[in-house]
Specification:
412 residues, mainly alpha, two-stranded antiparallel sheet, 1% strand, globular
């Protein structure tokens, strides 16, 4: 069944209503308390869990919340968080991308070959690497849509394929080093001066405020309910307080890591893309009900291909930051548990495995939980088998909370 072009904009709203229409701060708080009393804690569970993890590790080892350790934690979660942003997009449409770990290693290998062997300008090399990741992601999305092959199978094949390409590019040595102090190593190794860090935080808060006000104005102009000024102000103040505290703590060490700034900038960009644009609305609509989205005039195949392209690009970008973190492109980069942690972080952070629900902030909070557990256990010299068990239990708990919350929302 086809619909006319003129009818498409109006038909999008019934597919996925925009959140937060007309709510005040008091209404939001009362609604949240009502849900908690009914046992539906929703996304609050991950914040409770994070606080619990921090309290336990700080009591056991007083170094956990030290300035230096928090600085290391911020660096450690940055490249994995970038990868998880792409995973969030894929999960939003109800698909899965198992190739992100291999594409991460593939991206690092492409960057090393271009910059170290080919003599390409490092920044052009980074751009080419991200474009290459987007291209391989788009290829997988094309196979998924045109050949109607499940994304699980397509990306599982991609996992093996791009792992092989990574090994071939790195050659017999299996490692290509980046010079210490070079442009690539500076991405993870450099920190901002304290004054610049606070300026970056102020700019981030200002951008959030402008975006929220423009979004509110746009919704009112088309006759849709919009968040009340008090609710917008509360969100802006909360963001300002969080950023100030985080940047203040990091500045007490050696400054805010450049990699963390890059990651947070991408989080804000994807938050805007998902929540404030028509493209983001269509992505969530496809994840909520692909057939209804198609009948509403959305090109579902095009959305899927574009989302897989974004996932590939973010995986390659994560490879750039990972190579900067270790100072080399190696055979081990992108392997081991990176794929599992990248998907787990998105789910732990609140992105639904069933599609249609999630946020760019899921990648940040999810990796903060995983990174905190890993970092705390490392400080306690605990063996890796216990780390896997704890993170696996946290992941299962997050999925259970998601399933219960979804079931409660459908019955109330």
């Amino acid at each position: 069944m086809t619909t006319s072009t003129a009818a498409r904009p109006q038909s999008l709203d019934p597919v996925l209503p925009a959140p937060g229409g007309g709510e005040t701060l008091g209404q939001v708080l009362r609604d949240r308390l009502r849900r908690i009393r009914k046992g539906d804690v929703g996304g609050l569970s991950v914040y409770f869990g994070l606080v619990l993890v921090w309290v336990v590790f700080q009591l056991v080892n007083g170094r956990f919340l030290s300035d230096d350790n928090l600085h290391n934690l911020a660096r450690q979660i940055s490249y994995g968080g970038v990868i998880s942003l792409g995973v969030v997009m894929v999960l939003l449409i109800g698909e899965v991308d198992l190739s992100v770990g291999s594409v991460c290693g593939f991206g690092a290998a492409v960057l090393a070959v271009l910059v170290q062997k080919g003599g390409v300008n490092p920044y052009l090399g980074i751009l080419a690497t991200v474009v290459a990741g987007g291209a391989v992601g788009a290829l997988q999305g094309f196979i998924r849509t045109r050949m109607n092959v499940p994304s699980f199978i397509v990306t599982l094949g991609g996992l093996l394929l791009f792992l092989g390409v990574q090994l071939r590019l790195l050659g017999k040595t299996g490692t290509i080093l980046f010079p210490f102090g070079g442009a690539i190593s500076q991405l993870e190794g450099r920190s901002l001066a304290p004054a610049i860090g606070y300026v970056v935080a102020a700019v981030a808060v200002l951008c959030f405020l402008v975006t929220a006000l423009l979004g509110r104005r746009r919704r009112l102009r088309v006759g849709l309910p919009a968040a009340q000024p008090g609710l917008v102000a509360a969100k802006v103040i909360a963001l300002a307080v969080v950023l100030f505290v985080v940047f203040w703590e990091l500045n007490r060490a050696i400054g805010v890591p450049v990699a963390l700034v890059i990651f947070l900038a991408l989080v804000v960009f994807f938050w805007f893309l998902i929540t404030q644009t028509r493209y983001g609305q269509r992505v969530r609509a496809v994840g909520g009900n692909a057939e209804a989205a198609r009948r509403a005039g959305i090109n579902v195949d095009r959305i899927r291909v574009s989302v897989f392209a974004i996932s590939g690009a973010m995986a390659a970008a994560g490879g750039v930051l990972a190579a900067s973190y270790v100072g080399a492109a190696s055979q081990d980069l992108g392997g081991s548990t990176l794929l599992l942690y990248s998907i787990a972080a998105a789910v732990i952070g609140g992105t639904s495995l069933f599609g249609g629900r999630g946020s760019a902030w899921s990648a940040a909070i999810g990796w903060l939980v995983i990174g905190s557990i890993y970092n705390g256990m490392y400080l306690l010299n605990l063996v890796s088998d216990l780390q896997y068990m704890v993170i696996g239990a946290v992941l299962v708990a997050a999925v259970v909370v998601d399933s219960v919350s979804r079931r409660r929302s459908t019955t109330t």
